[in-house]
Amino acid sequence: MLEHNEILRYMSIQTDDGTLDTLIDRAEKEVIAASRPRHVSRHIDIAVNMEKGTVNLAGTDIKSRDLSAHLNGCSEGFLFACTLGIGVDSLVKRYSLTELHMLPVVQATAAAYTEYCADYAQQELEMYAAQHNLYLRPRYSPGYGDFQLSCQRFLFDALQISKNIGVSLTDSFLMVPFKSITAVIGVSNDPTQCHINKCMTCTTKNCPFRKEKRINE
Fold first, then answer.
1. Neighbour tally for 211: CB within 10 Å
2. Helix (H, G, I), strand (E, B) or coil at 191
3. Choosing a second label site near 124 at 20 to 30 A (CA), which of 98, 109, 115, 194?
């Protein structure tokens, strides 16, 4: 189900001779068995002010030039959140106490499966866009570029995330269960700005999906 190369990127391994395949297959089975994926989304109005570097999401102003650039041209979109559930956190903790050599494999596999589940859940948003001859921008999450992690609080309140999918937010704006995602997804009538390149406007340099840029940097 999951691409091994994607899991290897999460492990910061660019190439492998196949020696990790058995470990990855084992981790994938256990992560999927431990997961209870849930998601929630909300359709919102979006207003971008490129001059001020702000985005109004459902009536709330967010200061972020990177998010403004990412959503430029969008007048609507979605707030989105998903999680694998607490079982995966328990699985990771167990491996941290029993088989340390498996821990990075399990963590990377869980990260890849989180993205897979988010992509699957997003299909219903893609159906809405297709019905209106529109296109989805890639997910953009707090912590990307100058989109402050503290904006998690806005997403949690707007989506009632704790109530709807059982994810809580720590004082440092980290999510529990840890294998969870929040994001803003813009909707546009311009297909040239809407694709699956996860690095479209993100300036984060340590993202495992910046493989092409890492080679050139």
1. 12
2. helix
3. 109
- Preceding omega of 177 cis (within 30 degrees of 0): yes
Give ∠ CA 46-48-207 in degrees, rounded to 5. Answer: 90
Q: How many domains does the chain have?
A: 1
Q: Which of 121, 29, 126, 128 is nearest to 82 (CA)?
A: 121
Q: How far apart are CA 121 and CA 71, in angstroms?
A: 21
Q: Which residue has the tokens 């190439």?
A: 15
Spatial strand order of the sheet with 54-57 comes to: 60-63, 54-57, 38-49, 76-83, 180-188, 135-136
pLDDT tens, residue by residue, 162-186: 999 999 999 999 999 999 999 999 9
E strand or H helix at 188, and its extent? strand 180-188
214: confidence class by pLDDT, cuts 50, 70, 90: very low
Q: Which amino acid is at 105?
A: V
- Structural domain that includes position 61: 4-216
CATH for 111: 3.40.109.40
